[in-house]
Amino acid sequence: MNTIGLVAFALVGSSKAIREEFDVFGITIVGLAMAFAGGATRDLLVTRVPLALQSPIEIGLGLLGVSLAIALSVVLPSPDTHPITLVSDAIGLAAFTTTGAIVATEAGVSAFGVVAIGTINAVGGGAFADILLDKSPFILFDDFYASCAVFGAGAYVIAGTVGASGSTAAGVCAVVTVVTRLVAVTYDWNLPTVQGLGLLNH
Amino acid sequence: MNTIGLVAFALVGSSKAIREEFDVFGITIVGLAMAFAGGATRDLLVTRVPLALQSPIEIGLGLLGVSLAIALSVVLPSPDTHPITLVSDAIGLAAFTTTGAIVATEAGVSAFGVVAIGTINAVGGGAFADILLDKSPFILFDDFYASCAVFGAGAYVIAGTVGASGSTAAGVCAVVTVVTRLVAVTYDWNLPTVQGLGLLNH
Amino acid sequence: MNTIGLVAFALVGSSKAIREEFDVFGITIVGLAMAFAGGATRDLLVTRVPLALQSPIEIGLGLLGVSLAIALSVVLPSPDTHPITLVSDAIGLAAFTTTGAIVATEAGVSAFGVVAIGTINAVGGGAFADILLDKSPFILFDDFYASCAVFGAGAYVIAGTVGASGSTAAGVCAVVTVVTRLVAVTYDWNLPTVQGLGLLNH
After folding, report:
1. CA B135 to CA B132: how far, in whole Å?
2. What three-state secondary structure class fits B43?
3. How far apart are CA B86 and CA B77, in angstroms?
4. Which residue range or ranges hold the Glycine transporter domain (chains A, B, C) (predicted)?
């Protein structure tokens, strides 16, 4: 799952950079940032050297995603919105949320900390890629995306609280994340804005 | 003071996100980022796990600020510029500058490092919130805000140098920060730009 | 070399902030961010307290660069594109890449990690300054700049692999970085975009 996620995340990041007419260095950096910045932030928060700087295989997977984005951009206008990419991205979201929740638990943070680090691991890379592209992170105003990571990591915490083993909790986290994400994509879920709730009377 | 600051900072961040029509997840994240990103950056700089990830009470205060922003937005167009918010924000600025200066002193950095970490603790959250909103951090070109933290942390260093106890230095820091900030708000102080100084002759 | 680099980087960052009409606090912060954020990120990635927070001399050099930017802006429209600045900046790029590669090697990361940390040390400050100015980092779509750091750090890794001593490898890194940068500036090199390669047929 982690393998699929790294390739899919790098592909999505690079596709966005291609659309903004970044040069090949920029395309590579945005792709790698999307794939690795979430995990690197997770590692910084628990004060350890980012794993991506130590594992050549992971970087290879990221570069594969970057290459795929460039190759596919020749034939497809938006390889990052292709159904195969959306499913791979959902799998990556689940894998990254689960890894983050496990690392956070080992670091001994609070229940909120576990949800926060799981979510940051999953969506931090995408948020950082959007900042590099000079946009607001899309997760903050569009789509039902980061919420899936919050639900997944929340399910992980609850499973652990009711006595599930670590691997059961991890499985629950991955399933909840990927299922809510695929349902959200299928039915085009969105969170409301305050304006959308019709509450403002000024 | 720290309690008031967390609520006020989260309220200000969330109010900005509401104005940009972010969804409720984005509103929550920008509010929490404004309240906690400065302290988290401080903790990363002295290489320890961010306190906010370990303390459920602090997160509760942040979420209270987010809820207040949503509730108040129904009746007020700009709850973040209400006089009560401005005073609470000044108190938070002072509390965060003082905490940052104390943590930095314990970490054994230089006098410049103490001022830098005190200021980052106080204004880093607001700067990060503005980046999430795809703006330049307001502290860099507007208002007399970060300067108050610089003065407060500078007073802390001077107090320590002339032999004041830790708690006296902390008190001096808090008073200098909150007083300069309230005076700056009252008299609408601004720092000059190079253009404003009328120096450019090209 | 490091001395020249700190002054030149701070000068370039502050010049950009002056052009955006930031106030004097903002000008100072963007200049210091450009000079120190790359090294601070390097230190965070290998989990140590940033050196800049411990060394008053380095901060003094950064503030000298900020002052030079303000002074020169009175007589020059763009001190950051003056030939002397471009050469000093290239020297700084080489010094920072070399320092980053050495620190990364000591931290025991992979070959990719050495290139990544060398490059981040060299260009991370400029990228962060651009984010503060609410722009996409210029290194991602313009110019042949970060690539010089990648080549330099790559040469460092190769030199180490074929048995060169640490100081020889450092010398090779610095020479490769500064020479490729000066050649790139002279001949106005650019990396292609995917669009520029004429590959897109949609």
Report:
1. 8
2. helix
3. 15
4. 2-72, 87-159
Closest in C47, C134, C139 to A47, CB measured: C47
Answer whether A194 sits within 8 Å of B73, measured CB to CB: yes
Q: Which residue has the tokens 């509760």?
A: B60
B134 contact residues in A (CB cutoff 8 A):
134-136
> Could you give the dihedral angle defined by the CA atoms of residues C37, C38, C44 and C49, in that order, rounded to the nearest 10 degrees?
-60
Instruction: Write out pLDDT tens, residues B107-117.
Output: 999 999 999 99
Q: DSSP for A40-104, please give it.
A: HHHHHHTTS--GGGT-HHHHHHHHHHHHHHHHHHTT-S-GGGSHHHHHHHHHHHHHHHHHHHHHH
Q: Which chains touch C (3 or more CB pairs under 8 A)?
A: A, B
pLDDT at C40: 94
What is the mean pLDDT, run by run of 10 residues, along chain B of 202 residues? Answer: 88 92 92 94 92 89 93 84 87 94 94 94 94 88 86 96 93 95 88 76 57
C168 neighbors C159 (Cβ within 8 angstroms): yes
- Cβ distance of B116 and C18 shorter than 8 Å: no
Token readout for C25 is 């606090």
Burial status of residue C36 (CB atoms within 10 A of its CB: 0-12, 13-18, 19 or more): buried
One digit per residue, the tens of pLDDT, for chain C of length 202 reads: 788 889 999 999 999 999 888 999 999 999 999 999 999 999 999 999 998 898 889 999 999 999 999 998 888 878 888 888 888 899 999 999 999 999 999 999 999 999 999 999 999 999 999 999 998 888 887 678 999 999 999 999 999 999 999 899 999 999 999 999 999 988 888 888 888 776 665 5
Which candidate from B53, B76, B134 shows the least CB-CB separation from A110? B53
As a whole number of angstroms, the distance between CA B139 and CA B119 comes to 11
Q: Is B30 helix (H, G, I), strand (E, B) or coil?
A: helix
Q: Specify burial of residue A76 (Cβ count, 10 A radius: 0-12, 13-18, 19+).
A: middle
Distance (Å) from the alpha carbon of A129 to chain C's nearest alpha carbon = 10
- pLDDT at residue number C199: 64
Q: Tell me the CB-side half-sphere exposure of residue A160, using CA atoms within 13 A.
A: 20
Question: pLDDT value at position A192?
Answer: 82
- Cβ-based neighbours of A31, under 8 Å, separated by 6 or more: A10, A11, A13, A14, A17, A62, A65, A66, A69
Q: Are C193 and A23 in contact (CB under 8 A)?
A: yes
Is A72 within 8 Å of B75 (Cβ atoms)?
no
Rounded-to-integer distance, Cα C202 and Cα C200, Å: 6
Task: Specify whether the CB–CB gap between A103 and B49 falls below 8 A.
Answer: no
| SS3 assignment, position A189 | coil
**What tokens does C177 get?**
């970085």
Residues near A8 by beta carbon (within 8 Å), at least 6 away in sequence: A65, A85, A88, A89, A91, A92
Instruction: Report d(CA C8, CA C3) in Å as an integer.
Output: 9
Residue range B114-166, pLDDT digits in tens = 999 999 999 999 999 999 999 888 888 767 899 999 999 999 999 999 999 99
